[in-house]
Queue: 3 jobs
Job 1
Amino acid sequence: MHIEIAAAPVPEFIAGPAARPMLIDGAWTDAQSGETFETTNPATGTALASVASGGAPDVDRAVAAARRAFEDGAWTDLNPHERTMVLLRIADAIDAHAEELATLESLDGGIPITVTRGMVADAAKTFRYYAGWPTKMTGTVNPVDASVHCYTVREPVGVCAGIIPWNGPITMAAWKIAPALACGNTVILKPAEQTPLTALRLAEIITQTGLPRGVLNVVTGFGHTAGAAIAAHPGVDKVSFTGSTATGKAILQASQGNLKRVTLELGGKSPHIIMPDADIPAAARAAAAGFAMLTGQVCVAGTRILVHEAVHDEFAEELAKALAQFQVGDPFAEDTLLGPVVSAAQFERVKSYLAIGRSEGADVAIGGGEYDGPGYFVQPTVFTGVDNSMRLAREEIFGPVAALITFRDVDEAVRIANDTDYGLAAAVATSNVSTAHSLARRLRAGVVWVNTYSELDLTFPFGGFKQSGIGRELGENSLDNFTELKSVFIRL
Ligand code: ADP
């Protein structure tokens, strides 16, 4: 199979021959080593732009800048109303540059333009949501002995680093930057080496909104260089990480030197339970989107579809029909729903799991075909005859590959669903209200969807049980992540 890729637009930001520098202390700067690396367009496999390859000395500079900016108080002690206004200006600036940011995101990550437009709009929404908080973060006055006055205040944590992955880079950048700034922190963002462009352009846009110098820094580079230096740095007070469970564990370990505050949003192998009383065509559509959207490169992807044996065949047929509607193609075509996976490495990884599934004895029921290059396109694929002990059912693939597993009764469904190291998301398709509530209670996951999949809202906590992470992001929860709570006792 072959996919035609039309000439894509080239934003001015990457039109020049020079490598894109990093943002440190309000200045655009090369890596101290002078090194750069290339980022690739996964739809064509060709180089897109080169960016500075930051390392430990650059992280040192960024930390020093963020510390100075934190301590001089220009941001932290700014009147909360003023902080709100800056965050609102950032949101407006994102909207004003929406098409350019969406274009950069689609070029760099291969995500369809119709999807990245929504992501950019959501990034603006994230800044707007957190813009509301600076004036509303109150403390308490506590009922203690009459001879003392006791109250609590929320204070910023200090220098906060965000280390983010390549799936939904602008979404992740907004989730890390907006609440950290709202709480009065200074920030160092390290985008993934596969997709550094929108973080850099976003930072450029943000610097034009009146944020004081050094409050936001962006260090581009690799995980084992820039990322590891951030995680181990004694001058970083907090790391907020989104990415793989293996890297999350490395970051947690590296951050122990100064007991950084660490929040981790990690992987998943989320179950989607299809009960026999479900609206089967609707459940199949939700399940298809649940595992295949963003070409399966979603931490909450519903990659274990647990289907009651009585409706297995009907469901599989409906699932095939739903997936047939998913147009794989050029990220810049308006009717494309699924673009390529992000990189050559990810392409090989996904293909290796197709081979693993076959070698484990599972059957390819839907998809499984290959596209010829040069882009990294994968056909959404569903395996049947899968046992939950197979690697196909246990390991996060991060591609559009799902395992269909049958169950006989609800207890067996719950047992299989919870039999995983992960606990990020789970879903149930049923028309029975009490089954819905009962399963919502029994499933060990940070979010449970009923008769829907992937729905999130900025006001809700997001994060995982078990090895899917530590802590919750979004909503009021991010305020806990980005503030320290202080108790003050005054003897009267
Ligand atoms: P993937 O393996 O799919 O690239 P990762 O979880 O490793 O996903 O990457 C997510 C982010 O973590 C990226 O920004 C990456 O550079 C960074 N990273 C990778 N390894 C480390 C590490 N040891 N320490 C800190 N950051 C890292």
Job 2
Amino acid sequence: KTEEYMTPRRSIAFIGSECYPFVKTGGLGDVMYALPKALVKQNCDVKVILPRYKCIPWEYQEKMVYKGAFEMNLCADGRSFYVGIMEYVWDGVVYDFIDNEEFFGGGNPYTNLIDDIPKYCYFAKAALAALNYLDWIPDIIHCHDWQAALVPVYLRTLFEDTKISSAKTILTIHNLRFQGVYNIPTIRYWSGLPDYVFNKDALKVSYDDANMLKGGLTYSNIITTVSHTYAGEIQTPYYGENLDAHLRYHSGKLRGIVNGIDYDIWNTSTDERLYENYDITNVIEKKKENKRKLQEELGLVQDEGKFVIGLISRLTNQKGLDLVNEILPQIMDEYTQVVVLGTGDSVYEDSFRYYENAYKGNVCSNIMYDETRAHKIYAGADAFLVPSQFEPCGLTQLIAMHYGTVPIVRETGGLKDTVEPYNMFSNTGNGFTFDRYESGLLLDAINRAKTLYFTERECWDEMVRRDMDKNFSWDNAAKQYKDLYLELTW
Ligand code: ADP
């Protein structure tokens, strides 16, 4: 039928600690949901293995079907634990939940490392044991972040003589900052892994500590990150989070594949959360209406002639908010409004509240998590700020462009890969960018955006349409992952 079905079939087991809509705390949850769905269209059999957290909503829990259970040796002293398998099938993807109340009975998926280290040792080993138990031997095991990083280590040690050992492994880094580092005796005890993996080429990072992510990087066949630029950056000390040397050593198996966005959720023609739906043919007029109604709802001065800058983000250092803070007074003039949506560090929550008060009617700080408001801001703003310190991929700039909102970003990680800087001579590009992490350069980029908006509206409008026209669908990314799976198993 379609071109997709021409490529050979492969079976993939996804192993990770979160997945929308069961449990999500960040971008990892989005990928674990969208990528398997897109891979099914690329002629893949996909099974997603997740912890059965108690906090998964009841509407899903009640539909899970019991698939079996067994006892599994885990710890160095042979202590064993119950492993239950509960299954839920949805949209062609099979979700197998590892059931154990002792580990997954808390209110949140993550608590603190004291609990999380044993939890994810157990999870990694139980996931492999469950695949053997179900006799479902995939071509590829695709693991995500530190919580699943021991999977390749187990596979090449304690599982070497089992059926599952024929599988190839991929470890994807969604954010290098989180690594699962703890003292060696604790990880050695809970994982039950042989002593020789606690050497400096595998898990060991110092005299005292072991690093679960580092172990996964060592033992996996391929490492990927969620953008090309981030794949390069993490090999440098500035971005490498103390693993840069190790990543340089393994750079031959390191790749970058940029994430997509979910076109079912993010679709300007059908998005029910928007004041006015639109598409590329009427974006310019309809965005003005979305802007006016957004201004009305947020209590801003209603004037469609103003340049509205949106910012939707976790309010943490990673996102470059100290730069925004420094220059906000210089951004504000009689032609400009700023709309912020986010929660996080209280320093930033407080400073944005302060600015809302200082620039009443022209700055609106929504210190909350609100999906509906996010959609309205993406549609109603003219420009969108993402000045991150580091950004493995970043979804907000993709959503902004898809909604015809021009991004202003720092040239790092996925931002660099997805936002081509505007070139005034050739009238090409998708947004405004700056390189060094300096507030003056951010201000300069914002001023360049404003200048184009106010003096060459035709060029601005063309950029809006170019942005909407870019393809950020998951199908694109899924094709690249499928190629990688084929390359590994040919
Ligand atoms: P990260 O995963 O580092 O937080 P991403 O850019 O990959 O950053 O993803 C952020 C996602 O969370 C986007 O979909 C964004 O719209 C959403 N988001 C962030 N903060 C909020 C908020 N306060 N309200 C609604 N959505 C938010």
Job 3
Amino acid sequence: MFCYQCEQTTRTPAGIGCTSEPGTCGKDEATADLQDILTHLIKGVAQYARRARAVGVADRQTDDFIFYGLFTTLTNVNFTATRFVHLIQEATKRRERIKLLYEEAARELGTAPEILSGPATFQPADSLEQLLRQAPGVAINANVEHLGSDVIGARALIIYGMKGVAAYAQHARVLGYQSDEVDAQAEEILDYLASNPTDLDEMLEESLEVGRLNLKVMELLDVANTETFGAQEITSVRISPIKGKAILVSGHDLHDLKQILEQTKDQGIHVYTHGEMLPANAYPTLKAYPHLAGNLGGAWQEQQREFADFPGPIVMTSNCIIEPGRSYKNRIFTLGPVGWPGVRHIDNGDFTPVIQAAKALPGFAADAEDQRITIGFGHHTLLGVAGKIVDAVKSGDIRHFFLVGGCDGVSPARNYFTEVADNAPADSVVMTLGCGKYRFNRHEFGDIGGIPRLLDIGQCNDAHSAIRVAGALAEAFNCGVNDLPLSIMLSWFEQKATAIHLSLLALGIKGIKLGPTLPAYLTPTLVQKLQSRFDLDLDLIGEAQADLQAALTHT
Ligand code: FS2
Ligand code: SF4
């Protein structure tokens, strides 16, 4: 077992990476190894998909599988080894199918099909035991002794970024939004990886290509969310329970939440959001359901305590799931790509078992004191008041913008992000997104002439909104984004944050502070190359007060 895809990876003097089970996240060795095999096979699917596309066969089902399959391997998504055995079998079938389609189409055009190698020809074994014996040969760090950690790290940067892209693409696809341009580019990048690249500069350039692809995918997801559920509106969300039966829905998938709301209509059950589902409360179509009662709890790492206390069933629509405690393992459900051994999985869109569980469980005995936070500052909202914001900057009422967002996690070094938000001066605005905001989104920030000082933009993928807003401000002031009084402090944990970070780098945005650590796969050589060859800033967070002062002196 070797995995270093997330911020929680083991960092020991002997090496960097979770090398023995369970990984810090709870992933066992078999699951980690099977995820590596699946990822390898998906590159093989992409090898043929790309070539099939070139001869006129663009097969959406194949790309559906590529994105879904990669999503299942993301941190804190799926821990069920048996599920990966099935996905490996499915990947092989899909690869053989698209191979056939490619070869037929090529022959019809009178050209000889290419003979491919690498993941395109990898034959997974039939038994779990043999599969696990194959895993070291296709692991992320296979051949590190010969290739070196820089080559492995650069490849990791690309594939981990692609996992993030895949998650966002999947959320858009379930809403019926897909793009041939995105599919083609994803196939190209995975095909590139299948060629076992070794040129560091070339791979770093390709990683920025992942960032550019992620921009398109985040935009696609934004369009999907907005056209399906309406544009986010400023919304006061209740964050305390109401008496009655209850269901808690966590993760990022708004489509799943919609299904649950629809099926629980008029059943006397309150539906609450949790974690990254909080922004759902700001979408008109979703908040129109009177039984969407608000948001309970905070970021993913608090779930064992919060879920134990919740008096109803819990539904995980995407990451981040962590080992369910015994007190709630029989009332937590997983959907889509998510899985945990022994946890009930719903894959047919029928939430009857969840509804039955909600009715059988006690629910909340009484109303709690009404507590609220304000959300809904997506780009539609913010651009709608752009004139007011620009005027406030011109008059000096707003001196600086901070974007403090990303993932949350366990590391105490993450207090940095709370300290920055809490100590940002009164004439500055803090924009936030992702689950990292739970560290400070109940704090009192006040407002500047009616503009709230804390603006919750949405989920991590709503980084797209933040980029749109920054672009609009730059246009209003006739300058570049890097010339704006804007500082970005990005908290990362998993591979979606990697994709977002690559997007910001690809846009040439300078001065981003990343933390709590730099990714383990970014070796000193890679960091140095990104800085010198590509003129990118790759700065680790420092001390909060010092970083704040430095940001403000550049205002
Ligand atoms: Fe948080 Fe976990 Fe959003 Fe990440 S709920 S760390 O997956 O994607 O942010
Ligand atoms: Fe370790 Fe993170 Fe990989 Fe889990 S996902 S095994 S914590 S590096």
